[in-house]
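All the exercises in this workshop are built on plain-text protein records. A learned vocabulary of local backbone shapes supplies the integers on the structure line. Once this layout is familiar, the rest of the handout is easier to follow. An example says more than a description, so a record of this kind follows:
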Amino acid sequence: MKQDRLTLYKLIVLYMLSRVSFPLTKAQVIDFILGKEYTNFLTLQQAIAELTDSGLVSLKPQYNRTYLLLTEEGGQTLDYFANRISDAIKQDADLYLQEHEMELRNEIAIRAAYYKSTSGDYETHLSATEKGTELVSIRLSVPLEEMAVSICDNWQKKNQEIYQYLTDRLF
């Protein structure tokens, strides 16, 4: 019985990935499934790990996020076993993706990362994309890691305000 539930959680992940035209982060998928209380965090982590181990989903770490990508094998598996997901769960997932599409897209479109450069400073890279087009890319060098962390955090919170300021000042 436990294996049947684990299989269901895997299928839900595959289903969600198949329903969007953009990548979802691991955190976004986890938020939905845990928010609906389908399972607990550890079981869901096991399901995702088994999906990646079996090649049905690939992980793409980028900046401070991990994206889940549906592989061809994952799509084929979902096609074969989709009938094991109840219509109610499919409706929940579809409604969630529809209601949160803009914030899900925005979350993956705003990136912030930093690293220690060979000079000893910390380099931050901030970017915003829309429909695959990079709108802005900013690199800042700062002397302290705490500053780099703060810059990345504030970019996540204030990117629209900063982008608007830049365009107002430059155009």
Observations:
- Strands lie at 24-25, 57-62, 65-70, 110-116, 122-130, 133-142.
- The helical segments are 2-18, 26-35, 41-53, 72-81, 87-99, 101-109, 145-170.
- The first helix runs from residue 2 to 18.
